[in-house]
Design brief:
This is DUF3106 domain-containing protein. By secondary structure, the protein is an all-alpha fold. It has nine helices and no strands. It folds into two domains: about 120 residues, no CATH class; about 50 residues, no CATH class.
Amino acid sequence: MQKLLLATVALIGLATCQMGPWQVDSTKEAEFERMLSQLPPQLQAQAQAIHSNQALSFEQKHEQMHALIETLPADQRPMPPFMRNLPPSVQQQMRELWSNKALTWQQRRQQMHQLFQSLPESMRPHFPLPPFVNQLPEPYKSQWMAIHNQPGPGHFQKIRNLIATMPDSVKAQLPMQGRWGMMGKGRMWGQQQQQSQGQFRF
């Protein structure tokens, strides 16, 4: 099994594209803990140190985590749960994709997304809408759902653009997520947006 744990990393990224940053914190932490438990004890402390190092950028954390995982023998790299139901040919494509060091992490993630989109609907991973979306008035609810159903590059910017069109009364219904530049209850919406370093921390 080659670089299969890395594919889990990519899936978390795709998940965040559909769920949105307000719903990701608990998900990403749970996924990290699950992956951490599958690593050999001698690597767990190193992985935790990378994950907790706030001096590292999003990209630096990913590159260091990938390098750490790649030190493992192939038989010690566990298969992500979502891959178990995929056809062997798709699993092989994923292995080859994550073995291709000529691609950057962003390129591999984009190609992973394209691979998932090429699968039949029944095989694709699906993620629920954030609960508050159902409470939004029209046309914002429908517009948000349309963006949610088309994940991929530019997803977060589309969400931000939609939020920028909302009146303050609607923005007040959004969860508070200052580090994503999406501020709702308890924050001044007019503050300058912070540039995100990524969808989740490692």
